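Model it.
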Amino acid sequence: MQAIRVFISSVQAEFAEERKLLADYIRTDALLGKFFEPFIFEATPAVKHSAKTLYLEEVAQCDIYLGLLGKFYGNADARGISPTEREYNRAKKLHKTRLVFLKSMPARERQQKQRAFVKKIESEVVRKSFSEFSDLKAAVYASLIRYLEENEYIRHSPFDATLNPAAKISDIDSERVSRFVSVARSKRAFPLPEGSSVKTVLTHLNLMADSRLTNAALLLFGKAPQKFFPTSEVKCAHFHGTEITKPIPSYQVYKGDVFELVSQATDFVLSKINATTGERSYGVSVDVNYELPVPAVAEAIVNAVAHRDYTGNASVQVMLFRDRLEIWNPGRLPFGLTPAKLKLPHTSIPTNPLLAEPMYLAGAIERMGTGTGDIIRQCSELGLKAPEFIQNEEFKVVIYRPKPLRKRAEEQQPSSEECGKKCGKKCGKKCGKTDDFTTPQNRKKIKDYLKKHPTATVGILEEITGLSRRGVEKNLRLLKTSGELQRIGSARNGQWKVTRKPASQ
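Modeled.
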């Protein structure tokens, strides 16, 4: 960030010590020094230009005019104007911020022209008084902090609630707002009717004030959010191994509003992980079973986008490895929350509340702090290793992939000794998975498991029954035909429902 230049103006002889101390204070203060660069003539190296020309050039280049007024008016030029008043007039003409500090003393002690100058200033700006340098330092600090707040260099409100000084209503995509209203009415009974104006919708959502847009409005409905926030993107990478290595086999950087980012990143993951499809036994649709729980993947990504720190230079990263999926969020957990507490029931503390509310209304997130619990439960239902939540420089969610089929088969295959004991040398039974055991016992085993784990995939049912994929699918078809089992929802996000017990049991 370019430094904010502060031009310190006064009669040099009268405030020689204060000028130096004030410049040093602004430059070395832990906060002010990050934003401001003071200018005093005494610290300027010798140049060919006249002092008068140099003063006025510095005033033109500065952002803030800081004037110190005391007893003396200063040496007037041929027109009867002192350097201090000339500098003040130039700052006024160029519409610079003017901060004026008046040394406390009886008015009669000031020179006559100084009294007139003070009276002029008091009619144009608010001036503050000081007696000692400690008073001056405190007053200058307060004024500069207020400048930072008013110009939104620093803020007390959350990032998403901050009004964006560069944004206009034309930066909002009206079609995105219309789609949101339609979805929100369907998902959460949003009260505004379809066809409501952009301003009406944004005002209702507290995304607009005094015709100015909040940062959240741009992230949610902006035509080009990355124009205002270049790092509000999601970087997705797929690695064949278990470490970050180059070259990266597949790498994408997604841009757009927050809804688009979540959708694109989720689709990236689903396009890279293993998936199996059922048969078109009872219609044109086909069940698709992914190796990872799709709702958990989407939840982890939407949480990273909704709750990240948008003030930094990092982006959300989604990285798929051979053994796990990692979602990196550039931010920290809210005060009071820890990774351990995320595994337990906890309250929802959104980092960006104005951003989170429309995402809730659109059905993307919940308000109750159940997201991490849902991720844990959904992974458990698929028999996956428990996910991890890690807070380092960034917040990280790790969802573990199932072990490769070959490795699982090796772990589950009985040894030759065990096989001999179990089946005998002349046993005609086939050890391991069987092709077709459509028995009531296997169907009961499937139903019992699906009662507790309704989102289980065919692959998981293979493991708990010992059947082949073909055997599992035959049993599922029989259960659906008899009315004992029903598939609810889409292939990606659906689940099984056990409807009744057969009469024979």
